[in-house]
Please model this.
Amino acid sequence: MSREVYARLVEEFPGSSLEYLEGKEPAISVKANDLFGVARHLKEKEGYDYLSAVTGVDYPDRFEVVYHLYSMKERKGPLTLKVSASKEEPEIPSVTPIWSGANFQEREVYDLMGIRFAGHPKLTRILLWEGYEGHPLRKGFPIEGYKSMGQEEPS
Amino acid sequence: MERIETRLRTETITVNMGPQHPSTHGVFRMIVTLDGETIVDLEPVMGYLHRCHEKIGERNTYLQNIPYTDRLDYICSMSNNMAYVMAVEKLAGIEVPERAEYIRIIVVELTRIVNHAVAIGALLNDLGCFFTPMLYGLEERERILDLFEMASGSRMMCNYMRFGGVRHDLPPGFMADLKEIVAALPPFIDEFERLLTENEIVLARCQSVGILPPEKAIAYSCTGPLLRASGVNYDIRKVDSYSIYDHFDFDVPLGRNGDVYDRYLVRIGEMRQSVRILEQAMEEIPEGEVSVKLPRVFKPPEGEVYHRIESPKGELGFYLVSDGSTNPYRYKIRSPTFINLTVLPELCKGNKVADLVAILGSIDIVLGEVDR
Model:
């Protein structure tokens, strides 16, 4: 099913960098520049009205944000959408204007993984406190934290 | 002539509710902006129970993560177990024996009844009826927890499921006790309803409060009873028919108005449907194996998988990335209540501050899962 959606997406967005990823659960990969347009198209034209999960993954060479989309009206899905972000300055567009349910999830990815979402209404830490150093879900983050216990008291 | 109102300067005030407010179901804070008694804006603040569960999950082996999932939503440890082991089974391609599937359905549906009984009790606590309805719910919960103890050795942190089945077969005497408890459930739900459904105070406090229109519920990724109370027919047990849910005959209770009262009614309805599933499962459960043999060092193949189930609170999903080693490379939990909270400010705006705790209670949050 993702393959048909992919074929229609390629027709709709010629010249963009869409890619079909085979695997146990096929996915569609899209460049950060095209994400917003593709996401809006998926919601408005393909009927994917429900954004289930937003996940950040830290791979050795890149960050990846994974979106799991479903359609509640047509009861289809999942459609997996993947976006890569650079290691140095990870930033991708926010999809909160399209699916309001992305709001807290994007804040969580920013908080724990350090990926910025451009256009997010309020991109602040959500689980950790403001002023915390580092992003714990990154692979390079030491398990005991950058500061020892006691130094890290929230202000 | 200058009217007197124009000379009165009014201001909004900001009230901090929590983190130690008795009605917040744990350590959860809301920064509420009030105009008189009307809520103008609300900002949820969470993370007080954050322990970076997902980072711990990457350090652990796949098997070691099962007891950790118990501690997410500590009222529904069985359904957390089920979501996680099913995700790993999907990743590694493990087949589950039929008897084990039936056992899983039985314990998970019992968990749903426990959760909804506690959730309704907690909602009534929030409405000011302190602990009497809650104790009615807890009494029934105790009986079910005794069953869990028989099966798994633990009442709350069950740690009962394993990849490819469950830890032990049901002990002798379990089915007889289960039959007795399931037979006693419909009278318990009737009693609950007799006390609450037509109760004038419940009606006055719950009807037309915290209304969530269906379009908004979908846009905000709401799931579970919160979504279905708005009239959206979306139950993952029906949509994905994972495990063996397609064997059973049950309905999906829906609400019409999407207010606090409908969420209460949907939960009552779901308890009745769970009893129906339990009755069928008890009837049909086959004999046989309850687990499959796996290698001592368990290494699922490379790949990634997303699996979701209808937990009592909503869609509980696990996204696992495997690099072929003994530990997950990425272990992500899509927790239902964390995402259901996204809509809380929208639900509360325009309502009175006195209704805020009722609205929060009707979402049914557990902070162990919100904060992870």
User: Anything to note?
Assistant: DSSP finds three helices and seven strands in chain A. Chain A touches chain B through 36 residues (CB under 8 Å). The first strand of chain A starts at residue 19 and ends at 21. The mean pLDDT of chain A is 84.
